[in-house]
Amino acid sequence: MKVAGGIGVVGSAGCAAATDGGGTGPSQTKGATDPSGDYDIGGRRLVGADGYGTIAEAWADADDGDTVYVHSSYDAAEAGESFPIELDCREKQVTLCGGHPSASVIDAGETDETVLEVVGAGSGDYQNNPLVKDLTIVGGGIGLRLRAAPFASFENLTFYRTAGHAVLVEGHPDSGTFGTNWYNVQAWNCGGDGIRTDRSAAPHGTTLWGCRFTANRGAGVRFRGAACKMVGGTSQLNYDYGVETRGGDATLVSGAYVEGNARGNDFPVEVYAKRADGLTVENSYFHGINPRGAEHDYDRVQRAVNVHDSEKLTVRDCVARRYGDGFVATFGCVDADVYAASHHLEETELFARDPTRNGNARARSHGVILPTDLTAVDGACEYDRGYHVGDDGVEGHAIWRNGGWKVSETVSL
Predict the structure, then answer these.
(1) Distance between CA atoms of 300 and 291, rounded to whole angstroms?
(2) What does the pLDDT read at residue 292?
(3) How far is it, in rounded angstroms, from Cα 47 to Cα 45?
(4) Band of pLDDT at residue 2, cut at 50, 70 and 90
(5) How far apart are CA 164 and CA 233, in angstroms?
(6) CA–CA separation, 128 vs 130, rounded Å?
(7) What's the average model confidence in pLDDT over 288-297?
(8) Is 27 left (phi over 0), alpha (psi -120 to 50) or beta?
(9) What Å distances lie between residue 166 and 115, 191, 283, 319, CA to CA?
(10) What is the pLDDT of residues 3-50, one digit of tens each?
């Protein structure tokens, strides 16, 4: 089998296809109709040895349906690649990919320019979705800046030591960037956030699948928009919050590993939410240690989950270890359900603050309002449940029925 730059394609007759030639231009191939020649490799624009010198050159020559393939032999500095590398998906539908993230590397060095600038077709063409995968991006300013790209996908990307955010999703005059999917995207030691979605992008429905954000100078994940999700993955040792969400409904953090974040904050908190109605944090592991030290004066992260001014939030089925102040704290929240019996806690109190105070209303566990004086509390719905502890000495389970609480007094055993 003849192979150029690590690519071999089998043609219909069972023969191997490959590219010939070299230089900074595209490889030359003979047509598949010539039995003495090689088969065309099917629209792969190779960047590296025996191919294009720069990604920009390959992108410029690519046609709809092509793949710009970054080989391990590609060297951005040696090739004279200019940054940012602009992938304008309004002009053509082309995939940018490498063979393996550990080998296909775009090293932007000390430049403060964005490395990849990706612009989608916006709301005008929902089937034109940018696709970038299987690459490592090193250095530069922002690693990947994404705009006007609804339903775009990014897979197996590693960002290392960018000066700014690893990923920035920003607004665009033509469209928002919603419904994006990020699979196994990692950010290590970057100068800003691991991934930052700006409110101007209307980034609803952002989903992180098994992503990892470690030791970044900003937050691991900074969500804006509704129905954003972190499913699996890790956020640890970041200098700001592990996960932050503000002003977005129905945020989900599920099955995540969260440890030792907020190393640069005066008061360290792992997950911070504000105006996050419908927030759910579930089935996740939290560890409040500081294995590499921190800039604050605390021996441990103080809280795992800190929520302000939010309604109908749920925290359940988690493991929490070694938090200085407690696992959960809520302030000005309504119907915060902490599912108290569902958590496994080690060296950690469940509540960092009394959940029936701090401006909270109807604080709950497993849907039942925690013990409080229900005299001035309205039920949320017919047959709402709570536990009443009144100043008049009446105590017992209560059910909201026909506009009032029906209390069954407790019998001591």
Answers:
(1) 9
(2) 83
(3) 7
(4) very low
(5) 22
(6) 7
(7) 91
(8) beta
(9) 10, 8, 27, 29
(10) 334 433 322 233 333 333 344 454 433 333 333 333 336 689 999 998
